[in-house]
Amino acid sequence: MLRVSFFHLFTAVLIALAGIGFAQNSPGPHPVPLPAPAAAPIDQPYSGTISLSVDLTNVNQRVLSVRETIPVKPGQNTLLYPQWLPGTHSPSNAAGNLVGLVVTANGKHIPWVRDRVNMWTFSIDVPRGVSALDLSFQYLAPVKPEQGRISNKIADLTWNSVLLYPAGYFARQIQFAPELRLPEGWKFATSLDVKSQNGSVVQFKNVPLNTLIDSPLYAGVNFKRVDLSTGPNDPVYLDVFADKPEQTQITPEELQYHKNLVIQAEKLFNSRHYDRYDFLFSLSDSVGGKGLEHHQSSEDGTRANYFTDWIAGVSGRALLPHEYVHSWNGKFRRPADLWTANFNEPMRNDLLWVYEGLTDYYGNVLTARSGLRTLEQTHDVIAEIAANFEASPGRTWRSLEDTTNQPILTAHGARAEEWPSWQRSYDYYSESDLVWLDADTKIRELSNGQKSLDDFARLFFGINDGSYVTVTYTFEDLVKAINSVQPYDWAEFFRTRVDEIEPQVPENGIARGGYRLVYNDTESEWMKHMDRSRGTSFATSLGFAVKSGGGNEDDGNAN
Questions:
Q1: Distances, alpha carbon 39 to alpha carbons 84, 103, 206, in Å
Q2: 64 against 11, higher pLDDT
Q3: Which helix (H) or strand (E) covers residue 78, if one does?
Q4: How far apart (Å, rounded) are the C-alpha atoms in residues 387 and 20?
């Protein structure tokens, strides 16, 4: 018996060795080793301050001219162009829009080489005797209105588009001294602190890279600052930039709705995590719409008639509430695997159903509580969400959690879904509305009306009042906090609705709230508004939509 076992073992070893030898000597090419990645960031200060000067005057051609001086040491240096952007949850900063890069030192040209694998990485061999590199380049902003952020009346400057930074350091450890040249006569707004201004040239106080990129700037010809502050210790401003002067005008009633938004957010979270908050708000038909969160501001953009045709603009009124909630959820508190040390480390999106989904839920809640939308309109919003998912066969193969990868799969919308109801899209926004409504009503039911999701929001996001140092969270942190408000198997509750494939639309929150989804042949006022703003949708019946500008969108439901 022992002899047989030894023989079998000896034979197996020979066969394995023969296999290894065959694999090592197989004909054909072998891969060239990949270049070493950029140095991993460390949490230590970068030596010196980077000066950054941006010229915004060429708005007609949408070209921004940049000069940058970076302190360096002799030897191999690696510079990074920001790639992964918070809020887009994807590598969305287009490296191809950085052009004309020239590097000099002490008046002499210094060669640079782009990494052959990572197109956002540049290597520079710095000669002895050089202590700083002078960079000049241009950023080409998109020219199509639906993509562009610059016109001859309005500009949205995102600092991530106009800078390079040294690899190997946490973004919060790299100091910048930014400067901006504006077109003559233009006004601007930003959460950055101004150091000085001489005519059209503005110098800002030194700021770490993470704060700089988190502090965009809006500029334009027609500008009005609207004070939404609830008191001297809570400064909040609506910075309105428009195509025409009259489009910046706001009625007392409209003003009160927006002030109510700030009041209701304070009641909800019982805290604030900013020194001053600026809604950077563009009203334009020549600059694309936008909604992107930042800690002490937000980039917001919608149609030019937001104020001048108040009734027609009802569909866009959840924009500001959504981005404002992000100051608490997403910026102050952030999923741990969405926080990165710099802007070239990959993000992981599996908790976007909290980061974006819970924000979307409370964005809709605050839109209603502030009066920006009526209760009936809010009911119609929830009904439309549920109806769309009832007509979404993609739920039979793809989980809600997997849709959190959509920003990466589509390059944050650059590659559109051709069959969205089957492929699924950014469903972690709207389907999560239903999940969080379910959770909210469940807490109310279990506590006999004594508690609600508001208690969780206040507990989870209301910590460290006055601080804007980000605090990260995990799924376990979330479950622990909501359990402290109302004991229940919340881990199972969320896992079954988020991680598992569930063809049944999560409509328990609608039923528990005393409502049900009903279809009839009379279009609601809300749907009429939506038809006028985006085109007529037959997604829940015939499976397609007609764009407002003409043409069809096949939604893939007709089968």
A1: 16, 21, 25
A2: 64
A3: strand 75-80
A4: 58
User: What is the distance between the alpha carbons of residues 25 and 6, in angstroms, rounded to a whole number?
Assistant: 29
Q: Does pLDDT of 183 surpass 80?
A: yes
Q: Are 289 and 349 in contact, with CB atoms under 8 Å apart?
A: no
How far apart CA 499 and CA 112 sit, in angstroms, is 45
Among 344, 341, 348, which Cα is nearest to 38's?
A: 344
| Chain segment 384-400, per-residue pLDDT in tens | 999 999 999 999 999 99
pTM: 0.91
5 φ/ψ angles, rounded to the nearest 5 degrees: -65, -40
Burial of 399 (0-12, 13-18, 19+ CB in 10 A): middle
CA distance 418 to 398: 16
Residue 147 has pLDDT above 70, yes or no: no
Q: Which domains can be identified in the chain, with CATH numbers?
A: 49-219 (2.60.40.3650), 227-554 (1.10.390.10)
> Do residues 228 and 261 lie in contact, with contact meaning Cβ atoms separated by under 8 Å?
yes
Mean pLDDT of 29-58: 96
Amino acid present at 133: L
- Using only C-alpha atoms, the chain has a radius of gyration, in whole angstroms, of 27
The dihedral built from the CA positions of residue 206, 209, 215 and 217, taken in this order, carries a sign that is positive
Residue 134 is classified by DSSP as: E
Token couple for 452: 């609600």
What is the pLDDT, as a whole number, of residue 542? 54
- How confident is residue 445, by pLDDT bands cut at 50, 70 and 90? very high
Closest by Cα among 209, 287, 206 to 247 = 287
Instruction: Give exposure, 456-480, as e/b (b: 16+ Cβ within 10 Å).
Output: bbbebbbeeeeebeebebebeebbe
CA distance 331 to 459: 16
Cβ distance 472 to 286 under 8 Å? no
Report residue 194 as tokens: 């101004």
**What is the edge-to-edge ordering of all strands in the sheet holding 154-157?**
154-157, 217-220, 187-190
Pairwise CA distance, residues 460 & 338, whole Å: 17
Euclidean distance between CA atoms 196 and 198, whole angstroms? 7
421 or 436, which is more confident: 436
Beta-bridged to residue 400, according to DSSP, are none
Q: Please give the structure tokens belonging to residue 445.
A: 């039911």
Average pLDDT, the chain: 91
The single residue listed with the structure tokens 């100091």 is 175
First to last CA, the chain: 65
Structure token digits, residue 519: 């279809």
Question: In the sheet where 552-554 sits, what is the strand order?
Answer: 535-537, 544-547, 552-554
Q: Which DSSP state fits 172?
A: G
CB-based contact 326:306 (threshold 8 Å): no
Handedness of CA 413, 419, 422, 427 (dihedral sign): positive
According to DSSP H, which parts of 394-464 are helical?
A: 406-409, 420-423, 427-446, 453-461
- The per-residue b/e assignment along 256-273, b for 16 or more CB within 10 angstroms, e otherwise, is ebbbbbbbbbeebbebbb
Report how far residue 311's alpha carbon sits from residue 300's, in angstroms, rounded to the nearest whole number.
Answer: 19
